[in-house]
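Attaching the record inline, Q. Sequence:
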Amino acid sequence: MNGLIQKGEVAYGWFLKAVNSLQSPFLLLIRVYWGWLFLQSGIGKFGHIDKVVSFFTDLGIPAPTLNAYFNASLETIGGILLILGLASRLIAVPLLINMIVAYITADREAFTSFFSESGKFFAADPFPFLLVSLLVLIFGPGKFSVDTLILAYRKKHAPATVAAASN
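Structure, as predicted:
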């Protein structure tokens, strides 16, 4: 019986190793795909800024022109940063807030139906963008990112910097 348990533990260990090796490619795929969609959305807003300002005005958003340009800039820059995996967790915070505001202002019914009719919440346009922002915030960009390259560079050069600073 112990041999069977040990074999099961070894097999489970292999399974975990295989599944864990998919984390970074999955995060890369998520970041690039949804980063591209954020980028396209931001560029689209810039291309039709008058319609965005009108929509924001209809929703009662204060300073609709300023907020339209802010929103377009956030989505454009946020999309680029997500694609690169640069400052990923930092940019995920304003993108997440932006999607929550989108729910509250443009999809209030879907937002308030989270517990009563969750299908409406999950089918709303902001949901996948909110989910991606949350995933990147919690799990980070993965190994295939500029953030990871910067971290590796800093780790490699940190001892030399500390030693030079102490002299």
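The chain has a mean pLDDT of 93. DSSP finds nine helices and no strands in the chain.

More tomorrow.
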